[in-house]
Amino acid sequence: MRKPIQVYLDEADFARLESWSQQHGWTKSQAVRLAVRALTRPPADDPILELIGMFEGLPPDLSENFDRYLSETYVAEHGPAYSPSRGRPTSRLRR
């Protein structure tokens, strides 16, 4: 059974919650529920297992097709900030 709660937010926090919710396609209530779960979740022995059940709306076949979903969502915006190494530069000067 769900119980109602009333929360007062200042304008900045409300704007951030509204913006985050719109970007992720969630309602503000869903975002608040997730935050409460994340803040009140007891620590697990394994940090990876601690994430179980924390996120709603994930594809049901995520564990089977993780690599595919990862490659579809991760896109590098810029190339590396360094140039690939091509070995030691050779000098024209002979010693």
Q: Which of globular, elongated, flat, extended, rod-shaped describes the shape?
A: elongated
Secondary-structure content class: mainly alpha
Q: Helices and strands, in N-to-C order?
A: HHH
Distance between the termini: 84 Å
Radius of gyration: 23 Å
- Tell me the number of helical segments per DSSP (H or I, 4 or more residues long): 3
Number of strands: 0
Biggest sheet, open or closed, and with what strands and sense?
none
Tags for this entry?
single chain, 95 residues, mainly alpha, 3 helices
Secondary-structure blueprint of this entry?
Layout: H1 11-24, H2 28-40, H3 66-73
Helix pairs in contact: 1-2
Care to give the gist of this entry?
This protein is mainly α and 95 residues long. It is 37% helix and 0% strand.
Give a structural overview.
The chain has a domain at 11-73. It is an all-alpha fold and 95 residues long. The mean pLDDT is 79. Helices cover 37% and strands 0% of the residues. Helix 1 (11-24) packs across helix 2.
